[in-house]
Amino acid sequence: MTSPWEGERVRLRAAEPDDWAALHAFSQEADVVRAGESIHPPRSAERARQWAADLASRDADPDEPRLVVAARDDDAPLGMINAHRADRLNGTFSYGVSLGSRHHRQGYGGEAVVLLLRYMFAERRFQKAEAWVHASNAPSLALHRRLGFTEEGRRRRSHYSGGRWDDEVLFGMTVEEFAELHG
Question: Which terminal residue of the chain has fewer beta carbons within 10 Å of its beta carbon, N or C?
Answer without folding.
Answer: N
